[in-house]
Q: What sequence folds into this?
């Protein structure tokens, strides 16, 4: 791949004589064990899933505790889980099963962890578990009774295909709390193109309020991923938009609305709006220019509309720089 190289925090073990290193070298994010001279000893994790971060290291028993997503079948591939595995790559074990997004806090001795889990359409739950995945005790279940008594309705996760007709995209639909399936509703996409994150919530939380509130004005509001939108999948998915940060996600956003309007007759595909902030701001403006007959209204907030003059940490990393090769073969970057 002619792209940037993503990095993650390593773990120094055995008095600095060994290093657990995170890399996307095989197309997926995995952990590797190196010696102090930088020689690869073995790949620790492998497969078509994404390892996120090191949670804890048990040096005495040579066990790595880490979070990963995309490994469990029939789940949203973004749902995060905690795993343990031996340094030699054997004995990999899922420690917090369940079709939810999980947030983990493990104690320093790697004996216990607090497991908080939910989806956008479930009540958050917190339990205490041991390092073999056994539940020790229930801690808390959120009380949403007052919220629900006020008329609150959970949003709805969905899955569609990208514009290529192959890649799965995952999103969330927010409806008015007085939703009537016999009515027709305009649809608004709240967007952020990535590549460092997608504006799609996975767990129940306050960050859903922007879409929830907008839906109460009588709209169907959706957030949905796009190829190139998130690092928590394959290297190919993450870097799909390298060199084309303006347009790369638009076809997928359009395809998502088209599929949902075919699936649900209450969506009026002749009234499609789009809005977003920062990267979502430039994406919403670009949508009006690239697909003016499809997107009827855009509200663009703080858009970075020219990545050639935007900041280095985002635009140069994810968009790249222009490579200039002279007749002599000398290469410079602009």
A:
């Amino acid at each position: 791949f002619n792209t940037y190289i993503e990095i993650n925090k390593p773990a120094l073990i055995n008095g600095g004589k060994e290093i657990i290193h995170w890399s996307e070298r095989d197309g997926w994010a995995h952990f590797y064990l190196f010696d102090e001279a930088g020689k690869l000893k073995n790949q620790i994790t492998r497969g078509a899933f994404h390892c996120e971060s090191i949670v804890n290291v048990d040096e005495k028993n040579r066990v790595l505790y880490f979070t990963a997503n995309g490994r469990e079948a029939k789940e949203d591939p973004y749902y995060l889980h905690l795993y343990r595995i031996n340094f030699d790559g054997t004995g990999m074990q899922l420690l917090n099963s369940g079709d939810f997004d999980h947030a983990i806090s493990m104690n320093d001795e790697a004996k216990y962890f607090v497991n908080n889990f939910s989806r956008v359409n479930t009540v958050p739950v917190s339990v205490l578990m041991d390092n073999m995945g056994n539940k020790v005790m229930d801690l808390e279940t959120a009380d949403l009774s007052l919220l629900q008594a006020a008329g609150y309705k959970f949003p709805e996760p969905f899955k569609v295909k990208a514009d290529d007709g192959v890649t799965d995209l995952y999103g969330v639909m927010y409806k008015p709390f007085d939703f009537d399936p016999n009515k027709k509703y305009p649809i608004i996409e709240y967007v952020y193109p990535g590549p460092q994150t997608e504006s799609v919530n996975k767990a129940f939380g306050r960050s859903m309020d922007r879409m929830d509130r907008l839906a109460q004005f009588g709209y169907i509001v959706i957030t949905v991923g796009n190829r190139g939108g998130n690092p928590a999948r394959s290297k190919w998915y993450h870097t799909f938009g390298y060199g084309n940060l303006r347009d790369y996600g638009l076809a997928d956003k359009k395809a998502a609305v088209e599929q949902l309007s075919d699936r649900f007759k209450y969506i009026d595909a002749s009234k499609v709006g789009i809005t977003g902030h920062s990267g979502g701001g430039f994406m919403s403006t670009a949508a009006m220019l690239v697909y003016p007959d499809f997107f009827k209204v855009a509200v663009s907030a703080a858009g970075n509309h020219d990545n050639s003059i935007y900041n280095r940490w985002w635009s140069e990393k994810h968009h790249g720089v222009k490579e200039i090769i002279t007749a002599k073969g000398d290469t410079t970057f602009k």
Summary: The longest strand covers residues 267-277. Residues 147-319 form a domain with the Rossmann fold fold (CATH 3.40.50.1820). The longest helix spans residues 250-263.
